[in-house]
Write a structure and sequence with these properties.
The protein is mainly α. The protein has helices at about 10-15, 35-45, 65-80, 85-90, 100-115, 125-130, 160-170, 170-180, 205-215, 225-230; strands at about 50-55, 60-65, 220.
Length: about 230
Amino acid sequence: MENLPSGCSDDRESDVMGQPPAESGPEADGDPGRRTAKEMLRSLEEDPTLVTGIVRSGYLAVVPRGVALKGAERREQLVNARTYGDVRRTAWGEWVDDRDMLLDHYYDQYVAEHPDVDLDGLADEELWDLVSPSDDAPFSMDGHPAFDSSVSDSAQSYEADIDLTTDAWIPREIASCYGERPSGWSAMPAREYEEPDFLYPERHREEIETELRGHGFTVVHDERLILKYMTGR
């Protein structure tokens, strides 16, 4: 048996024998919804590869390769969008067509570009149809209320939350051994911040990766892919 942190046990033998992995560690009983390694492998049947890296100082990032590649492609499409039509063809298309949030912004833009047009008396629906940008209109995330928190408290981040992603892909057997409870998180603009159950310190990287391999995952190091998954850049 490998050397494991105090309070952790090696559950892989029972997993191989087809029995439910034994819960271990002080947090196991409090996290019944977390998937086991066997359950995660089943969901990654086509490619059980996990990409790991250190992209945030002091903490390990873990993302399934298929998830990372798909997320990187989607975010790259947004980052490279130059028109509203480009954005509407991405997963973030609804963000630029939120009438409740953006009517005033698009109205101000339209009035600045068409100062002689009289918009008095138009209902909101008619106004929206007139002032919302066409597919050919140029787009930039900079200065857009849906994306730029410097101009709007309602802005959201299109970037992947690597801490949440990592925590979602650390199995129950490992999370309770090596995870640390986060602290010092605060609310994000326009929404309540969803924090991970655990963060995974860089000092446990070798043990975590060894455990993941022992449970049947393939582990590769690719910080560049993780960063592109997060930001599209």
